[in-house]
Specification:
alpha/beta, 9-stranded mixed beta sheet, 15 helices
Length: about 500
């Protein structure tokens, strides 16, 4: 069934044709007040923002806005998955038209090659040829760089020659169009990297006008400031960005205000840090973060259990108590997917610590309910904190299908904690500026036509922890590069592109 008020065929317009979005409430992504207007799209570009006469619409597909909101497509700064292997339809359904991959120190690789060891430029070429469903940008992952440079995972102090190779591989990725560097300092091998190594990469990123995004070494309440300081020092002259800003174990808005005041104190001169966050209280990552460093790769885990089993059990017990207990861990993958650690322990009739020891650090992914809602909600409202999902298509956390819809539903229309114009800015022009995209994130003449048509009151995030892949509702039409990519609750044309850093926008 076609959506009301939409005329003309879906998909790719005929040569020379375009789309007229008539009588829309334009929220252009800048934060400026909404206004009533028309928007004319020719090919992949916004040709006019302003009233268009009926006679000038001849041959165009005409979409009657009926006062619905027209906004730029959302830009998700932190995403997982591979468009060569999986469709990103749930992201289109929640209004996302551009995703940024290569996160947490990892990098995509061509199917059939070892993840984190394949050539990132070759993968980029493959995505460009494949015509994905939405736009794809990528960072170069530090952990992948290490492996491609021949640095063993457990190496703490690479040689000068190894660092030169690390810099050269990063430079090649940036020249191919990667938008910067990501680090995952809570994971192997990033956790073994010292400042000498990390700081050697910041100037390489800065020369390319890229960004350094980091899953920092710790997000715990007592460590998060030191982790931000480390990021700032490592990024050096490059732009620094905190991935999924949070305070684990922190409580209340006051804790959020303290952290934001600290971040504001770092802004305004030279490298002003930015951040992103998602509107959920549970993080989602591997259970390896529960284990001590001496039980992680490249250490021999069975040997660790045999030699230091009692010490390991004591560590895991204390760690889980600190993280709100076994009821606060919900397995998303592995043999216990869909159950909490406490439920597994009860069903098996053994202590939860023994369940963890048996699984080991590679035993699966889980949702970790370790955040305070009041604290996280306050972080989301800060002007320099963008909205990002940290999700993946088909993932076991609802953020991969719900983040942006929940942001609109819960913050812009429900409790109305931010004006819609600001809610849109934090999902469009703000992430575009952080990434360095010059032709997306705003509805303006000459920009690429990544556009959303929706009634904010009808936007709903349907995904939850029971059904984490349920697609969002309410985004009536999603245009990617001028083509209908999602409409009538179904995917349309594969109109996405591989975006490369430094590409010159049309009309610039």
């Amino acid at each position: 069934m076609a959506l009301p008020g939409m005329a003309g065929a879906r998909g790719t317009p005929a040569a020379g044709a375009g789309v007229l979005l008539r009588d829309v409430r334009l929220v252009d992504g800048s934060g400026a007040p909404a206004r009533s207007t028309d928007v004319l799209v020719h090919g992949d570009t916004i040709a006019r923002v302003g009233r268009v006469r009926a006679r000038d619409a001849h041959g165009l597909r005409v979409v009657e806005g009926g006062g619905r909101v027209l906004a730029p497509g959302f830009i998700d700064l932190h995403t997982h998955g591979d468009p060569l292997e999986v469709a990103f339809t749930p992201f289109l359904a929640m209004g996302v038209t551009t995703v940024v991959l290569g996160q947490d120190g990892g990098s995509p690789a061509l199917p059939g090659t070892a993840r984190d060891s394949g050539s990132l430029p070759a993968w980029m070429d493959a995505v460009e040829a494949a015509a994905p469903g939405l736009n794809v940008a990528t960072l170069s992952g530090h952990g992948a760089l290490r492996r491609r440079a021949g640095i063993d995972d457990g190496t703490r102090r690479p040689s000068d020659t190894q660092l030169e190779r690390l810099q050269a591989v990063l430079d090649a990725d940036l020249r191919a169009g990667a938008f910067g560097l990501s680090t995952g300092l809570e994971y192997v091998p990033g956790r073994y990297a010292e400042m000498r190594e990390l700081a050697s990469l910041g100037p390489v990123v800065a020369r390319a006008d890229g960004v350094v995004m980091s899953h920092m070494r710790s997000e715990d309440a007592g460590d998060v400031r030191a982790s931000i300081d480390e990021l700032m020092q490592a990024a050096g002259p490059a732009r620094a960005h905190v991935s999924h800003l949070k305070v684990v174990y922190g409580q209340g808005e006051a804790a959020a205000e303290e952290l934001l005041a600290f971040l504001r104190g770092l802004r305004g001169a030279g490298n002003s840090p930015t951040a992103d966050a998602y509107p959920y209280e549970a993080s989602y990552t591997g259970i390896g973060i529960l284990f001590p460093e001496w039980a992680l790769p490249p250490n021999d885990y069975p040997a660790v259990v045999a030699a230091r089993g009692d010490e390991l059990r004591a560590h895991l017990a204390a760690r889980m108590e600190q993280r709100n207990g076994p009821g606060a861990l919900l397995f998303g993958t592995g043999p216990h997917a869909g159950r909490r650690l406490a439920q597994v322990a009860e069903a098996e009739g053994r202590p939860f610590v023994e369940v963890l020891v048996a699984l080991g650090p590679g035993g699966g992914q889980a949702a970790h309910f370790v955040m305070d809602r009041a604290l996280q909600d306050r972080l989301l409202l800060e002007p320099f904190v963008a909205i990002a999902s940290d999700g993946s298509p088909g993932g076991s956390h609802p953020r991969g299908a719900g983040t942006f819809a929940k942001w609109i539903e819960a913050f812009a229309t429900g409790d109305a904690r931010v004006p819609l114009e600001e809610a849109v800015r934090k999902a469009t022009s703000l992430p575009a500026s952080i990434l360095g995209l010059r032709d997306r994130g705003l509805v303006r003449e000459g920009a690429k036509a990544d556009l959303l048509l929706f009634d904010p009151e009808r936007v709903r995030a349907r995904a939850d922890y029971v059904d984490p892949t349920a697609m969002a509702e309410g985004f009536d039409l999603v245009l990617v590069n001028g083509q209908s990519a999602f409409e009538d609750a179904a995917a349309g044309a594969n109109a996405g592109r591989l975006l490369r850093r430094g590409a010159t926008p049309a009309g610039a």
